[in-house]
Amino acid sequence: MKTQKALFIINPKSGTTQKKGVPALLDYCLDSSKISYEIFYTQYAGHGREIAEKEKNNYHMIVAVGGDGTINEIAGPLINSETTLGIIPLGSGNGLARHLKIPLNTKKAISLLNDQHSKKIDTINFNNDIFVNVAGVGFDAHIASLFAESKKRGFLSYGMLALQEIIKFKSTGYRLIIDGEEKIEKAPFLISIANSSQYGNNAHIAPGAEISDGLMDICIMQKIPFWYYPSLIFHLFNGTLTRSRYYKTWQGKEALIHLLEDAEKKSIHLDGDPYPLKEDIKLSVNPLSLKVACKI
Ligand SMILES: Nc1ncnc2c1ncn2[C@@H]1O[C@H](COP(=O)(O)OP(=O)(O)OP(=O)(O)O)[C@@H](O)[C@H]1O
């Protein structure tokens, strides 16, 4: 095994855990005969993407230390390159890391990198951008935009926000076309496009989704009556949403989400972070386009 050069990009703002201890853990857990490394801290949103773009040809591996938003920024420049994406899950939801079974324990996640194992996963083109985990319009996107404005992070803050907003939220209309076939024209509560099976925190919006199958899972939830909330939560966290009468899912290689009403008023998220939306959404799968360090 040759020594690999790795760059760790740490997002100091993600999740609820302090990142001050990370350099000491890297020093302790990384086998210096296998991995030499440098560390960079992001200073603002979007900085991770800039660093990854600039440095992708100088390292064998660029490691996102944060959550799905941090991964999204760093993954973009690495698509279709030979550089591997590493993940140390220190975000609020850690959806992609959980799906790939990367340990949530920081020491174990770092030690896993010594194995130098990786697998290729799909990524999804979203207009001129990309995402790696889950994107969507509707209620989840509305919560993502409020969560981004909030100073609080973590699962509890997210859950509280969702509970406060669920009754007030008004669905708007979309047309959904998957591989050329029209699916809905009603106003769903949300449409999720899933590469992995979960948003994070084991909330499985697309329980059957596989990340290396060349397909995206497109899921809709209809407006749910308040008496159904406990069942919804049960199905979401138990991976059994397909049993719910308010839920539908399809798989496809390409999709179009056509906005029926004022786009300015709609919320959208890519990997949990709000995204400015002004036009229809064109989606397509980039099969096996990203190398990720994980157990094989
Ligand atoms: N130094 C920084 N200051 C402010 N924002 C930053 C900084 N560095 C990165 N960001 C932004 O922070 C956002 C949130 O990070 P991230 O998504 O990793 O954490 P999270 O939302 O807590 O976790 P998860 O997405 O797993 O729920 C990212 O989209 C990124 O653009």
UniProtKB/TrEMBL annotation:
InterPro entries (alphabetical): ATP-NAD_kinase_N, Diacylglycerol/lipid_kinase, Diacylglycerol_kinase_cat_dom, Lipid_Phosphate_FormReg, NAD/diacylglycerol_kinase_sf, YegS/DAGK_C
Keywords (A to Z) from UniProt: ATP-binding, Kinase, Lipid biosynthesis, Lipid metabolism, Magnesium, Metal-binding, Nucleotide-binding, Phospholipid biosynthesis, Phospholipid metabolism, Transferase
GO MF annotation list: ATP binding; kinase activity; metal ion binding
GO BP terms, alphabetized: phospholipid biosynthetic process
The protein's required cofactors: Mg(2+)
Entry-linked SMART domains: DAGKc
Source domain of life: Bacteria
SUPFAM superfamilies reported for this sequence: NAD kinase/diacylglycerol kinase-like
Domain named DAGKc: residues: 1-130
Keyword field contains Transit peptide: no
Name this polypeptide is given: YegS/Rv2252/BmrU family lipid kinase
Organism field: Fulvivirga sediminis
